[in-house]
Amino acid sequence: MCRLAAAAGCDVIVATPHQRHPNWWNCETGRLESRLEDLRAALGQRPGLALGAEIRVDSGLLEALGATDESGLLSLAGSRYLLLELSREGSGPDPHEIAHELRLNGWRPIFAHPEFIPALGADAAAMQELIEAGGLMQVTAGSLTGRFGRSLARVTGDLLDHGLIHFVASDAHSIRWRPPDLADACAMITDRWGERTARRLCFDNPRAVIEDRPLS
Ligand SMILES: [Fe+2]
Fold it and tell me: How far away, in angstroms, is 138 Cα from ligand 1 center?
């Protein structure tokens, strides 16, 4: 996956294993860091690798983050940006409250693939409210390009039309099943929403995360 991504023009990958997910709790950071180190050694120079996580939102999340050093939770590339995953069924705590509380504590929450969450993806007003509460939005490249079907591509395209998206990510899982396909999504965004939008979603905003700067 790393070699495919590098060949497609990706300079840096933030690896985001699940955390606090019922099936993959994954809060032993030492083990994750050593796996990343092994991968780095196998790859050489490109692409650059950083560690992060896709953190499941549950009712204990805010409390766990308060314990910073002991929580084992990983921000994206050591920044103040956190990648959060809401449950698709809409169970769990109110995302507005989560976004608001995290912002108050100096975090910058990014919500992963809102297009898969019916209460958000299909409701531009709800998305706007969550952004106003301090949330940033990241869609999956394949959602936009039609990998998951035409109706999800339409939902995702509508979110871009409304200017509600800050990041596009690969959500890559393997070379066959959900491969890294950012280049296709980036080309499509350039085509349909213009060069500036493509730069912002695929280059400038992700770079701001890695460099731990606010989005411009
Ligand atoms: Fe996810």
Answer: 10
Output the pLDDT for position 88: 86
To which residue do tokens 């709800």 refer? 126
Measure 193 CA to ligand 1 centroid, in angstroms.
Answer: 25
Q: Note the pTM of the prediction, 2 decimals.
A: 0.95
Candidates 60, 77, 72, 98; CA nearest to 15 is: 77
- d(Cα 119, Cα 127) in Å, to the nearest integer? 9
| CA of residue 183 to ligand 1 center, whole Å | 20
Q: How many residues does the structure list for the chain?
A: 216
Q: What are the structural domains of the chain?
A: 54-210 (3.20.20.140)
pLDDT in tens, 154-189: 999 999 999 999 999 999 999 998 899 899 999 999
Please give the distance, rounded to the nearest whole angstrom, from the Cα atom of residue 171 to the centre of ligand 1. 7
Beta carbons within 10 angstroms of residue 135's beta carbon: 24
Residue 184 makes CB contacts below 8 A (sequence gap 6+) with 141, 145
Find the 16 Cα to ligand 1 centroid distance in Å: 9
Q: Which residues contact 71 (CB under 8 A, 6 or more apart)?
A: 27, 64, 65
Nearest to 111 by CA among 134, 137, 90, 129: 137
Separation of 113 CA from ligand 1 center, angstroms? 7
